[in-house]
Design a protein that fits this description.
By secondary structure, this protein is mainly α. Helix content is 60%, strand content 0%. It has one domain. The protein has 13 helices and no strands. It is globular, with a radius of gyration of 20 Å.
Length: 305
């Protein structure tokens, strides 16, 4: 399994073949990964070769969405407006910055970002009879989104000059794939392991991606307009600068890491894919411009410029 994961460009534990659909998706993904080797000059593919690869990647994307349920995510005009709003907020840069800029990140900032995005995921991740998202269901989604992520990353390498277009749903699906396939890797170790001391005694509870999904789901289902509170929400207590720093450091560590078998750090692949997908969307200059600015800021921070 590990050899197949490496061949497909997946990280250890990402591949979960539990049915014929998963197997077919893995075969399609393997063919897509190998396609550049069939080019006359793999270093300089022709527009026709690029077009063929992008079209094959779209087939893989649609197949993975069909067999996994990811295609049930509803990407509407409202979501496009949400993206534009998020791109335009100063909070975006604060949340993605290592630099102290005066304005602190608030719980409201986090909730405003997380709630609408997670509402999409709740539609495709199964729950038990009590409405709870189980860790094993999260892992199933991680495997499905990991395949989707790789398909988009392969697509992005040939979009420029292919004559092919993408949609806003492709950009949203890729960003979703990055977040979900990252799973617990984006969560600070001390929060995952429950080693942060509670001033009231003992330690705060260990918090995984599945835990966060369930907390946000419960909060969203309640219809509450008050900010969530309680010990279980300690991980977004940004009045504690140490916790805010943990999240920032976890994000940058994840981005700066070069996965086993890869030559580029994650941030290079993710940023390039986001920009290529966005640039191929017709009439998408605003979002593309904002993404270019944010990615330039992040790249400068990562590379220490």
């Amino acid at each position: 399994m590990e050899d197949l994961e490496e061949e497909l460009g997946l990280e250890p534990g990402d591949l979960d073949i539990s049915n014929k659909g998963d197997l077919a998706a893995a075969i399609l993904l393997a063919d897509l990964k190998n396609k550049p080797s069939t080019f006359v000059d793999p270093e300089n593919p022709t527009p026709e070769e690029k077009e063929a690869l992008v079209k094959d990647a779209k087939v893989v994307v649609e197949f993975v969405k069909k067999v996994s349920g990811i295609g049930d995510i509803d990407v509407t005009t409202a979501l496009t407006d949400l993206l534009e709003d998020l791109m335009n907020r100063s909070a975006t840069r604060r949340m993605l910055s290592r630099v102290e800029e005066g304005d602190e990140i608030s719980q409201q900032d986090v909730i405003d970002y997380v709630k609408p995005l997670f509402n999409m995921y709740f539609k495709v991740i199964d729950t038990d009879g009590n409405g709870t998202i189980l860790p094993e269901e999260v892992m199933d989604s991680v495997a499905q989104y990991a395949s989707l992520r790789v398909a988009y990353e392969e697509m992005a390498t040939s979009l420029d000059g292919s004559g092919e277009e993408t949609k806003i749903s492709d950009l949203v699906n890729y960003l979703s794939a990055v977040i979900i396939s990252s799973n617990n890797k984006l969560i600070p170790t001390a929060i995952k392991e429950g080693t942060i001391a509670n001033p009231e005694g003992g330690f705060y509870p260990a918090t995984t991606f599945a835990t966060i999904l369930n907390l946000v789901k419960e909060y969203a289902d309640s219809g509450s307009t008050e900010l969530p509170s309680g010990n279980e929400w300690y991980f977004i207590n940004f009045d504690d600068s140490a916790i805010a720093d943990m999240w920032t450091n976890a994000l940058f560590t994840y981005l700066e890491t070069t996965p086993t078998g890869k030559t580029d750090a994650r941030y290079t692949t993710i940023f390039n894919t986001v920009l290529e997908l966005s640039r191929a969307i017709p009439d998408n200059d605003f979002i593309t411009g904002e993404l270019e600015n944010i990615i330039a800021d992040l790249t400068a921070q990562i590379e220490g410029e």
